Each structure stands twice: as C-alpha cells, then as structure tokens.
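Page 42, continued from yesterday. The earlier attempt failed because a stray header line got pasted into the input along with the sequence. Redoing it now with the clean sequence only.
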Amino acid sequence: MSEAGQGRRRAARVAGLAAAVTGLLLGGGGAAAGPGPVERPPSLRAEAALLVDLVSGEVLFSKNAENSLAPASLTKLMTLYLAFEDVAEGRVSLEDEVPVSPRAARTPSSRVPLRKGERLPLEKLLEAVAVISANDASVAVAEYLEGTEEEFVARMNRRASELGLTETHFSNAHGLPSPNQRSSAWDMAALALRLFEDYPLSLDLLARKSFHHRRITRIRSLGLLNDNFGVEAVKTAWTREAGFSLVATARKDDRRLMVVVLKARNRVQRELAARALLRYGFARAARANPDGAMQASPHPELPAAPPFPLSSRDRTAF
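This time it went through. Structure tokens are written below.
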C-alpha cells in the first residue's frame, strides 16, 4: 500500500473511533451557529500533529501524523491502559499493595522516587505515572502485572496490534530512549481515545495538577491545565530524541477535541502548538450544523463505524 493509502487508512481508524465514542456519549451535535470566516490552519513548530473533532469525527488538522517517531512518555498511555484493563477484569485492585523491586527503584530520570522494598497502593503508582510521568512507578506497575517488565512489554505490543496501532512498537513501559520504541500521532490519538473511553478514571488522573508523596508535593508546570481552553486531561513527554510532545483532550460546551503534538523543539513551542490547534478547532466547531457535522465536508475515506469493537464499560462517564 502507498504512503497516501496508509495515511488514509490511519485517518479512518482515528476518526472512525472518534465518531463512535462521541455518538455513544453525546448523542448528537450542538446548536447551529451562523457561518463565519474560514479559519486558516495554524503553522506549527512541531514535527507532527493531529487534531480530531470528537463530535463530528472529522480530522481538522494533520501534519506528518503517520510518521514514525519516538513517543517518549506517551508510552505510558499504554501502561495505564493495561493496568486499568486488569482492574476492570478483576485481576488486580487499585488498593493492592505493590512491592518495589530493586530494578524499579533504580529506574532513572523522572521518578517518585521509590525505595527498594517499599509497598505502595496500585492507585498511587498509577497516579505517579499519570501526573509526574514517573518511570520508576511504571516499572513497578509493569512487574506487578506481568512478573517482569519484559513480559509486560510483550503484552503492550500484543495490545497495540489488537488495537490496530500499525506504527507503534514498545521496548519498555516508560518511554526512555530505545531504538525500537516508535509510534505516530495517529496511533497515539487512537490509543488515548480508547483509554479515555474504556477507563474514565484515566481522565481524572491526567487532569490532576499535583502529586503528593512523603510530605513532598510535585506541581505540574503545564499552562494548558490552567488556560481557558477547556482542557480535561493531558499527558506530556520529553526526551532528547523525541523532543517535546503531548496528547490532550479538551471540551467547550458540547464540543470535544483531541490534540496530539509530537517533537516540538521546546516546552514553549509544544504549548503554543497545542493552544493554536485548540483555538483553530473550537473556532471551526462553533460553525457546526445542528446534526454535529462540520460545514466543510468530512474526509471521503472516513468510515461510519470504528475498526474494532468498543467495550461497553463506563461509556457514559467519558
């Protein structure tokens, strides 16, 4: 298949899932708005980006969205997904006391930090993964769920294949640099949509602005959570190879958007890109027809149904 064909297929996968999720949750579009001047797509200083209207299912903006890039800590979206999957299936509980192995305790970079031999509730570790992107907590969760991080990574890749994430391959549970750790904006959007739809508690965790442990409070330095963009949840990422990236969902009135920014040059450019996309998306959404469809015609390749079944769990809480 050509690159163009692959791009259309990935666009269909993301937008089809978006339309299905929103149809289940919102049951229709917002009030009619009068036509206005056509918004010009923003110019971004980022390697790749994607903006999806979750009400209409339309892909509003795409830049190199099919390109294979290092996901860095966006990897943790899959770590969260598998953890919540096990909770939902009754294999583990959020109250379980998770032991911290020597390997988990010495995992570098962003850390709780955890101490070898201590035990923390699974929910606390998931909060650390979501709020402060703790690599040591990611390894502790992976080892608890599958025995070893290697076995957990194998499961991550199986699940990625089942979810249709064709450009995604994981090498670890946290996103620290690895030559084989790759994904794309399409895949990260599809994964985030599935995570939020299946397990709404993830939205709550990714909306929190601080993490407290051992009398120390860590504050997220992220303006998007404080700005007037209706951001509900955000996961950020950074490594030298991956640059500055994020996935976020935002809502204003009855409109909801999903934005992905990959490989911005710095933290400021990442947030400027996200703000520009949200501003552009909500301006377009404000001109939606009563049935929720945009005035501009949707992508002709977009399907009416998602490419894989959606679970029935917690749909109304998204």
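Notes: Residues 20-36, 289-318 have pLDDT under 50 and may be disordered.
Reminder to self: strip header lines before submitting.
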